[in-house]
Structure formats: structure tokens, C-alpha cells
Amino acid sequence: MVAITAPSSIEHIPLVRCPKGANAGPQAVIPCIDLSAPGAAAAVADACRTLGFFKATNHGVPAGLADALESSAMAFFALPHQEKLDMSGPARPLGYGSKSIGSNGDVGWLEYLLLSAGAASSGGAALPAALRAAVEAYTGAVRGVGCRILLRGDYSSPARWVPVPPDPDSFFVNVGDSLQVLTNGRFRSVKHRVLAPEGEESRLSVIYFGGPAASQRIAPLEQVMREGEQSLYREFTWGEYKKAAYKTRLGDNRLGPYELQHAAANDEAATKK
């Protein structure tokens, strides 16, 4: 969960609920995929190859789960800074944190609550009961949606920034770095940014990250590689990636250290020294 606001005191963030998407601007460039439709698998794969981003409808997650989580999250972020910190502990990386962003053109204060879904060491044992219950119910439901999308995909970035109108009845899904590696670049990990609603100073976002165990090794899948095709990435573990990604803040290319061309250049430079 992330709360973002224009530069101001972190002690007072007047969060607002996400508005309906009507009259929110153009949306034709974002694929809208009905997950219950017969052609959903092919549509998901096409969106992942071309844009790395799509809107999922008829996903099966009751609207009440998202509403409950949003309400309890807003109540948590409205608490005094120290009280939030006492409840969850500092983000290392799990827990509550806050920071000023701006190193990559972003502006504002960011405060967040990072939890590990379903893990005993989630960093949220002292969180309000309503928030804990809402997190558990919501993550269980969206985990099912994520697995459904992955299992239906046929595994054989937008060139510019485009507006994505909010839609409280849908999920916005984007390809992550690990999926780009697993498909050897066929699926595209897309860069995205969050804006506060027009006329408001802040907003709340709830993000679900799907990933394997920390020890899981990630490399292009043999099933997607054509005969004679070379891997674009060196193998790494999910834990290694997360540790490096946390240090990049909002860096543009978190896969740079794992690209074989990048690694070869580094090896050559090291040899010349």
C-alpha cells in the first residue's frame, strides 16, 4: 500500500478515494480484457508482448474486498507518523516507511506499508485487526487472479506516457521484470507512475506483487526458447533481484545488471583495469 502526496508534512496526508473513471480522459490505448471471455488467454499474451499493461475485467474479486482494504488503509495512513511506525516497525524492507522522492523526475512524499502476504514475518503483527483482516482477504483473492492470468497466458512498453483512467471495478495488470526474463524479452516490463487525482493533493494505491520464493532461480524458460536462441539474461535468484531493486528506488532499468550484454561489458572493463 502506498500513499503519495505533494510536498508537505508527512504528519498530515489528506488521502482521497480513487474517483470513478468516467470522463477521465482517453483510454483506447490500454487493452481491456474480459477474463471470462473465450479469447482472454490470447488477448493477455498479446497485451503483454506489445504494451506490458492491460485492464482486467470480470476478474471474480468481490468489490467489497477492495473497499474494505481501501478504507482500513486510509485509516492507517491517517494516524500519526510515530504510531504507524510503532505498529509495523521500520521498513527493512517490510514494514512502514516514508521518504521524499525525486531522483527520477518524481515529486512528493511517499509513505508506504510493505507486507509479505501470508507470511508469519509479514511485519504487520501489531497492525489494526481490521487492516490485517482486509489485507488477508484481499491478497488471497488477487493471488487467485494472478495465477489465473499466468496459467491462461500463451507464452510462445508503451512508446510514450499514456493516461490510465481509474476504474474501481477493474484491476490494472502490468508485466514485471521477472516475467520479462522468463519469456526472454517477449513480454515487456513496463514503467509506470502514479498521479494524484486532478484537484487533489494525494492518493492511495494498493499494489499486489506476485513473486516466487527468495531462493528461486530466474532465467528464460526452455519452453519459450526457439532452437539456437540465446538467453538475453544471466540467471539470478528472486532474492538477489529484490535486494538490488530496493536500492534503485525508482530507477528506469532494474534488469540492467542481469543483461548478458551489460555483464559482458563489465567483464571487459574489469579485464582492462
UniProtKB/TrEMBL annotation:
GO molecular function: metal ion binding; oxidoreductase activity
Ranges for domain Non-haem dioxygenase N-terminal: 30-111
Key words of the record: Iron, Metal-binding, Oxidoreductase
Pfam family name, one: DIOX_N
Cofactor(s) demanded: L-ascorbate
UniProt xrefs under InterPro entries: DIOX_N, IPNS-like_FE2OG_OXY, IPNS-like_sf, Iron_ascorbate_oxido_reductase
Residue stretches making up the Isopenicillin N synthase-like Fe(2+) 2OG dioxygenase domain: 159-210
Entry keyword annotation includes Transcription regulation: no
TM spans (from-to): none
Protein name: Fe2OG dioxygenase domain-containing protein
Organism: Oryza barthii
